[in-house]
Amino acid sequence: MPTRRRALLILAALALLALASMALALVVGSINIPLIDVVHALLGADDGVAGEVVRSLRLPRALAGFACGGLLALAGALLQVLLRNPLADPYVLGISGGAGVGALFAILLGGGLVVVNGSAFVGALAAMLMVFGLAHGDGSWTQTRLLLTGVIVASGCGAAVALMLSIAPDHKLRSMLFWLMGDLSQAGDPSLVLFVLAVVLAVCLPFARELNLLARGADLAQTLGVAVARLRRGVYLLASLATAAAVTQAGAIGFIGLIVPHLVRLAAGNDQRLLLPASALAGGSLLVIADTLARTLVAPQQLPVGVLTALIGVPVFLFLLTRDARTRR
């Protein structure tokens, strides 16, 4: 089968999976709504309770979940190229920790949703600038130095989060813990994160060839004419902004950025022209499905969606590890 045709088939299959996950999110809930009624609601032909539930509650939440999952998977794929480390994910560089510090500080002070989201975004950007500034140092920027700096910053943010949890009053602990475990129940207008997802994809795809070369080694890429230092800075900035936007909207959701690029790479190979859009579609679909399960498994009570992604991600990751070990033998 021609490579181009295979790539189109993979993208088409993932696009169908994304549509199916969105349909599931709109149909299933504490009130199950038939698919035909969902279609009528989306077309504006249903002004009753079902139409209001679909348009005002489920659709914005599903779109926000898809955008956040796509951003996390895309950021994970970019960071694995940047660091040449298959274990790299959006949270390894401390960006999520910085967002957590900002969000929990705002919750501790009694800020509303807008203040919490704004503080999370500012905290994520501050952590990003700190990691990049410290890792760059005297100009000797390396993957190892960036990774170690990110781990240290993430550890510091974790200590600050633990301190705030220990001094927080009881009536604020639940909301703080839900934010730390990932929560889409407070997701607002999804247009911003959808826009960020589209922009990050549009910026990355023209540089897919350079990313393919960078994945094979900086020396080879530089020999073939790639501006390695500029490309690394761009990749780090895009991955950080994608992570910051996702964490601000949905809280700290783990394993999406680690597992999804691995699974897509197994099915589609390591060509970034296919891997990046495929990761965005798969990551968005996975988070929408996980969020649907989180709000229906023990309905009317809702589970943190980060717990569901971890329960899915841990066995998948262990399977990938054992598979790699068998392949080497």
The unreliable regions are none
CATH topology (fold) name: ABC transporter involved in vitamin B12 uptake, BtuC
Number of strands: 0
Spatial gap, N to C terminus: 29 Å
Derived structural class: mainly alpha
Structural notes for this entry:
The chain has 14 helices and no strands. The protein is mainly alpha-helical and 329 residues long. It has one domain: ABC transporter involved in vitamin B12 uptake, BtuC (Orthogonal Bundle). It is globular and about 65 Å long. It starts with a helix and ends with a helix. The mean pLDDT is 84.
What descriptive keywords fit this protein?
mainly alpha; 329 residues; 14 helices; single chain; ABC transporter involved in vitamin B12 uptake, BtuC
TL;DR of this structure?
The protein is an all-alpha fold and 329 residues long.
Secondary structure: elements and pairs:
Blueprint: H1 3-27, H2 35-42, H3 49-83, H4 95-108, H5 113-136, H6 143-167, H7 170-181, H8 191-204, H9 208-215, H10 218-223, H11 228-250, H12 256-268, H13 272-296, H14 305-328
Helix pairs in contact: 1-3, 1-13, 2-3, 3-8, 3-9, 3-11, 3-12, 3-13, 4-5, 4-6, 4-7, 4-11, 5-6, 5-11, 8-11, 12-13, 12-14, 13-14
